[in-house]
Amino acid sequence: MQLAAKLTIGWADIPRSQFTATALHNRAIAAPQYEKSLFYQLQTAAEHTRVLGVDQLFRQTCGGFAPIQQFIGALTYLPIIPDGPSPLLCEIDLFAYTFLVGTHKIDRLLPIFDANDIELAEIKTGCTEALQALEDFERTGTLPSKMSELDAQQYLSIRRIIASPAARDEWRILARLLISGPSTASNLERELTVDYAFAHQTLRLFESIGIFARQGEKSGTNATETIFVINKVAIPLVLFCLKETLGLDLLGNLSALIEALYE
């Protein structure tokens, strides 16, 4: 079966649907034969179905690639479904995808959908301009024309949090939410081996300055927990901070993806 990645940005709450990647994967895991279950589920789908939230099968942990690898790998080996969509579009977060291209060459199994090229170029241009404004502000201390006073205050707020070399765990939490997406304090406690109270306080701290937003709740090891995501409008700010602190340049990886589309 031919697949194509439909890249998304921001972590809008995925609607309850039988065609989320997590739902498809979980039902297939529970069935006697994983591939046959996937094929049956897709066979009953409408003609224009796409798989939602593929990135939700991935967490940036040891072994965290296994579910998405099993899912995408199985889909590629399924036979073509008569009257089914071709290619089958699989929605996946832009930053999870760029990370997985660099670490696991996921684009070999899940190439970018051709129609994404214009949208990706616009995202790259917007992020590049925002990062340049932040660099200018950091260098000169003068508010650039493309940067509002509110943006400047938000930047100064996050800068105060992450400026210290001792703030490495705060850097890691920013990176985890950018790449792994929606997260709870328990996710961070388990995956980053940080104290639960620290994880919870840090999530709330970034929320208080508009970097993180709430996306609902789910049951966890610590009763019902709040799910946090990066506020979409704060993504360029997070990209800038991670590049300056951890050297993580996901925007550079995006540039390489766009260039590959035109080769």
What structural keywords apply?
2 domains, two-stranded parallel ribbon, 11 helices, mainly alpha, single chain, 263 residues, Arc Repressor Mutant, subunit A, 52% helix, globular, two-stranded antiparallel ribbon
In short:
This protein has 263 residues and is mainly α.
Explain the overall architecture.
This protein has 263 residues and is mainly alpha-helical. It has two domains: 3-112, no CATH class; 119-261, Orthogonal Bundle (Arc Repressor Mutant, subunit A), CATH 1.10.10. Helices cover 52% and strands 11% of the residues. The chain has helices spanning 21-30, 34-43, 66-77, 94-104, 117-140, 149-162, 168-180, 185-192, 196-208, 235-245, 250-261, and strands spanning 3-8, 88-93, 212-220, 223-230. The strands form two sheets. The chain has a two-stranded parallel sheet with strand order 1-2. It has a two-stranded antiparallel sheet with strand order 3-4. Helix 1 packs across helix 2 (34-43) and helix 5 crosses helix 10. The longest helix is centred in the middle third of the chain and has 24 residues, at 117-140. The protein starts with a strand and ends with a helix. The relative contact order is 0.14. The model has no long low-confidence stretch (mean pLDDT 86).
